[in-house]
Amino acid sequence: MNPTETSIANHLRNALHEIEHGTEWSTGEPLDWEERIETALAVAEASDLLIRETVGAARKAGTTWAEIGRALDCTKQNAQQRFGS
């Protein structure tokens, strides 16, 4: 993983802890449901960013749209429309 992917993955790991345990990962302070839902939305956004970063890195490394599509369980056309140019 590149530094951006590692950073995003760490944030996701921390956020998933907060959602699962209902506590702030670094302090252990309780989170209410509103905070947990906001965290879940942040996880969804970060996950999308991580996928985009990874697909971009794969393309720069020469991975074809067909290979990316297989990894994403979609067609190469769908992968290219969603992530490419």
Description of the structure:
- With 85 residues, the protein is mainly α.
- The protein has one domain (3-83).
- The protein contains 4 helices and no strands.
- The chain has helices at residues 3-21, 33-60, 65-72, 76-83.
- The longest helix has 28 residues, at 33-60.
- It is elongated, with a radius of gyration of 16 Å.
- The two termini are 23 Å apart.
- The mean pLDDT is 88.
- Which overall shape is indicated by the principal axes computed on the Cα atoms? elongated
pLDDT averaged residue by residue: 88
Helix content: over 70%
Radius of gyration: 16 Å
Number of domains: 1
Total number of helical segments? Answer: 4
Report the uncertain regions: none
- Briefly note the structural class of the backbone: mainly alpha
Order of helices and strands: HHHH
Please provide the count of β strands. 0
Q: What proportion strand?
A: under 5%
**Gap between N and C termini:** 23 Å
Largest sheet: none
Q: Could you provide a short overview of the structure?
A:
This protein is mainly alpha-helical.
